[in-house]
């Protein structure tokens, strides 16, 4: 496959779990854990898919999404938002700001993998 995914997450256990399942599937996985510099990381790495947490240090995933969708060259980047915040209002906000897919934690490894595959092939 050889596609690139950028995982923007600050929980080490989640980073390692997702890196393992995605790498095993042939994805090149880059990670970033600071919301304040996430857009620069996306610009630099040019991933095929972004997996984005909501609660990050220095900047929320929602703020990052707003900037990403307004970005001249990155606005079409597919984003899977992973969050512990799974209320309807969280899902509605994510959809309103352009998240491609929304998934709550805890998540199934197979569901994350199949979603990233689908987003990477879109």
Note down, in words, how this protein is organized.
- The chain is of the alpha/beta class and 122 residues long.
- The protein has a domain at 1-10 and 24-82: Response regulator (Rossmann fold, 3-Layer(aba) Sandwich), CATH 3.40.50.2300.
- It has helices at 12-24, 38-45, 61-70, 88-96, 109-121, and strands at 4-8, 28-32, 49-53, 79-83, 101-104.
- A five-stranded parallel sheet has the order 2-1-3-4-5, sandwiched between helices.
- β4 (79-83), α4 (88-96) and β5 form a beta-alpha-beta unit.
- The chain starts with a strand and ends with a helix.
Q: Please tell me the CATH architecture of the domain at 1-10 and 24-82 by its name.
A: 3-Layer(aba) Sandwich
The number of helices is 5
CATH topology of the domain at 1-10 and 24-82: Rossmann fold
Low-confidence stretches: none
Mean pLDDT: 95
Strand count, sense and barrel status of the largest sheet are: 5 strands, parallel
Radius of gyration: 13 Å
């Amino acid at each position: 496959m050889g596609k690139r995914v950028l995982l923007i997450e600050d929980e080490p256990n989640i980073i390692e779990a997702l890196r393992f399942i995605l790498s095993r599937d042939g994805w090149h996985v880059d990670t970033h854990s600071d919301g304040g510099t996430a857009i620069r990381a996306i610009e630099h790495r040019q991933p095929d898919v972004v997996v984005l947490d909501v609660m990050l240090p220095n900047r929320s995933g929602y703020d990052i999404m707003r900037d990403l969708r307004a970005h001249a060259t990155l606005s079409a980047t597919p984003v899977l938002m992973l969050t512990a915040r799974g209320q309807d209002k969280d899902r509605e906000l994510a959809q309103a700001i352009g998240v491609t897919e929304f998934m709550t934690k805890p998540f199934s490894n197979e569901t994350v993998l199949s979603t990233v595959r689908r987003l990477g092939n879109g």
